[in-house]
TrEMBL record:
All copies of domain Chorismate-utilising enzyme C-terminal, residue ranges: 368-638
Coiled-coil annotated residue ranges, if any: 454-481
Pathway given in the UniProt record: Amino-acid biosynthesis; L-tryptophan biosynthesis; L-tryptophan from chorismate: step 1/5
Domain of life the protein comes from: Eukaryota
Protein name in the entry: anthranilate synthase
GO BP, sorted A to Z: L-tryptophan biosynthetic process
Length: 656
């Protein structure tokens, strides 16, 4: 017997209990499309309903109750060996975005995994033919399952895919709240990815490409490492029909970070690496992972898409590649439905804690050195060399809190439009950025300058008063307009003539603790350019450099003692479909993975913890009338906001 029902919105109250044979099942499915809902404890129930579009129907992936998911062979990092469907007791049901097919199997006793499946069996032959036809014109085919997310969160899904002690495995978790939502609107989508098929790591002009599918690695020196992912992506052209049913979010592609110093690939003459400040941490300048396995959570519809991209390179027949891809997808779903899911520490949320938080006094510059740099910058402003410059300083703090625990705390302390936990080569980034570096969606470029800041009020009336004062502040507004002009210039470099627009000008966006002045600049990408060109044009945005940008960056090289690294660069994704969404790396904590200290302790029966070094970097915009002491204090205050997440993580999880 099997549990069946129709769409909830069709016949919510039509309940019919049927125990049927395989023959009855075949007769039934020849006339009606059924919605299967997984149930491990209820009696067999059947609801009938009229046929609807294939992607709207739910089915089950079944697993023998005697199977132990925990003993399954894990995905190897070479991504070659995947247990067969038969060996795991799983059916080979699979959804291809826009297309569908299902094969059935019978077993005496099954454990159900709750998943979305597809359409009637009559469409299998037609769909297979469509897939084969599509494979002739594209090298990418997405297959996916849609599962209930009521027992799975993005944080738990990440832990299912990346174990707690595997802190150097390239992986990511991206979340968001809607800009200006006043904490009331969680972003619709969260995305989790692990085990990239390929990695690109660049340090200055040295590039290492690791192909985990073919188990190969190449090393070379190139003039512009950012050209390598562009060239690898050139031959990808997913069929629009195959992606139309995927969620409107990042569903696979490149994910990683671009450091501030990647601008030196663009401005080779004026900003060479030879004139850059000291590189005291030796972090990569660029790290990208090619993720063809992702999990996308839709928080509105309460479901998650488990997506695998089949990349066709001609080395094996399409039928074999498709069969392997389906088995790979089934194994990925099984990992998310582990019988013994990983345990996460509950923690104790105390936002008032200062139990462990020391003052941020350990910086790469002293207070006097920073104020002296501000004075020198003002001299250049008065001389007419620049109008504004952003001078930053980097604070250091040691903690026994794990970086992922810090991220869990940061989600509470400072929810932002671009929340991210990114494990990359050389470092882990924990981010809560409010700002776009650059975004391209269906050839529309978006630049969103965010400058001009005020604290939040305790009441709506006080919020309104502070908002009015912010918009009447001549200095804040002048700085914002200057950055809007820089944004228009950046977009104009790669947009079609006459398409650049300021869609929103000087709106107020409210966040958990502050409010910002925001504007939106858009343009239509030129036909002969790609999203990679928009990234090159935007790096780095004026909010972290100054104006004019290149001259301000030349002075930053002179006035800041160490390289910025990931700070004020960007992190995010470039999708298989050619869209790009890169956040500005502000309000970001960097944990170098090579900087784990030997200091360890254990508390009662708790696992031993290793001490980490956390870098918190912040800057202040210097203009002609800036006060050096005020700018220094602004840097401290911004970094202290991030440090609250470490405070919370220590008080909640460390139990010192």
């Amino acid at each position: 017997s099997v549990t069946w029902c129709c769409h909830a919105h069709l016949y919510k109250y039509a309940i019919l209990l049927i125990i049927y044979s395989p023959v009855a099942y075949k007769r039934l499915t020849s006339n009606i499309t059924l919605l299967a809902v997984a149930s491990e404890s209820s009696s067999p129930i059947l609801h009938s309903g009229r046929q609807s579009p294939p992607h709207r129907f739910f089915s089950t992936v079944t697993m023998s109750s005697s199977m132990n998911v925990a003993t399954m062979q894990p995905l190897t990092f070479s991504r070659r060996l995947v247990p067969s469907a038969a060996s795991r007791g799983l059916s080979s049901s699979v959804t291809v975005a826009g297309l569908s097919g299902r094969s059935s199997a019978y077993a005496p006793s099954f454990r159900s995994i709750k998943c979305v499946s597809v359409s009637p069996e009559a469409s299998i032959v037609t769909d297979t033919k469509k897939l084969a036809d599509a494979s002739k014109s594209t090298k990418l085919i997405p297959v996916y399952r849609c599962i209930f997310s009521d027992q799975l969160t993005p944080v738990l899904a990440y832990r299912c895919l990346v174990k707690e002690d595997d802190r150097e495995a390239p992986s990511f978790l991206f979340e968001s709240v809607e800009p200006g939502s006043q904490m009331s609107s969680v972003g619709r989508y969260s995305v989790v990815g692990a085990q990239p098929a390929m990695e690109i790591v660049a340090k200055e002009n040295k590039v290492i490409v690791m192909d985990h599918t073919n188990e190969s690695m190449t090393e070379e020196y190139v003039e512009d490492p950012m050209e390598i992912p562009r060239k690898i992506s050139e031959s990808w052209n997913p069929d629009p029909q195959l992606v139309q049913d995927l969620p409107d979010a990042f569903c696979g592609g490149w994910v990683g970070f671009f450091s501030y110093d990647t601008v030196r690939y663009v401005e080779k003459r004026k900003l060479p690496f030879s004139k850059a400040p000291e590189d005291d941490r030796n972090l990569p300048d660029m790290h990208l992972g090619l993720y063809d396995d992702v999990v996308v959570f839709d928080h509105v519809e309460k479901k998650a898409y488990v997506i695998h991209w089949i990349r066709l390179d001609g080395s094996i027949p399409y039928e074999k590649a498709h069969s392997d891809g389906m088995q790979h997808l089934e194994h990925l779903v099984a990992k998310l439905h582990d019988i013994e899911p990983p345990k996460l520490s509950a923690g104790n949320v105390n936002l008032q804690t200062r139990q462990f938080g020391p003052a941020l006094e350990n910086s790469n510059v002293t207070c006097e050195e920073y104020k002296e740099a501000v004075v020198k910058a003002k001299e250049h402003i008065l001389a007419g060399d620049i109008f504004q410059i952003v001078l930053s300083q980097r604070f250091e703090r040691r903690t026994f809190a794990d970086p992922f625990e810090v991220y869990r705390a940061l989600r509470v302390v400072n929810p932002s439009p671009y929340m991210g936990y990114l494990q990359a080569r050389g470092c882990i980034m924990v981010a809560s950025s409010p700002e776009i570096l650059t975004k391209v969606k269906q050839n529309k470029i978006v630049n969103r300058p965010l400058a001009g800041t005020s604290k939040r009020g305790k009441t709506e009336v006080e919020d309104k008063r502070l908002e009015k004062e912010l918009l009447e502040n001549e200095k804040q507004c002048a700085e914002h307009i200057m950055l809007v002009d820089l944004g228009r210039n950046d977009v104009g470099k790669v947009a079609k003539y006459g398409s650049v627009k300021v869609e929103k000008l000087m709106n107020i966006e409210r966040y958990s603790h502050v409010m910002h002045i925001s504007s939106t600049v858009t343009g239509e990408l030129q036909d002969d350019l790609t999203c990679w060109d928009t990234l090159r044009a935007a790096l780095p945005v004026g909010t972290v450099s100054g104006a004019p940008k290149v001259k301000a960056m030349e002075l930053i090289d002179e006035l800041e003692p160490t390289r910025r690294g990931p700070y004020s660069g960007g992190f995010g994704g470039v999708s298989f479909t050619g869209d790009m969404d890169i956040a500005l790396a502000l309000r970001t904590i960097v944990f170098p993975t090579a900087s784990q200290y030997n200091t360890m302790y254990s508390y009662k029966d708790a696992n031993k913890r290793r001490e980490w070094v956390a870098y918190l970097q912040a800057g202040a915009g210097v203009v002609a009338d800036s006060d050096p002491e005020d700018e220094h204090r602004e840097c401290q205050n911004k970094a202290a906001g991030l440090a609250r997440a470490i405070d919370l993580a220590e008080s909640a999880f460390v139990k010192k």
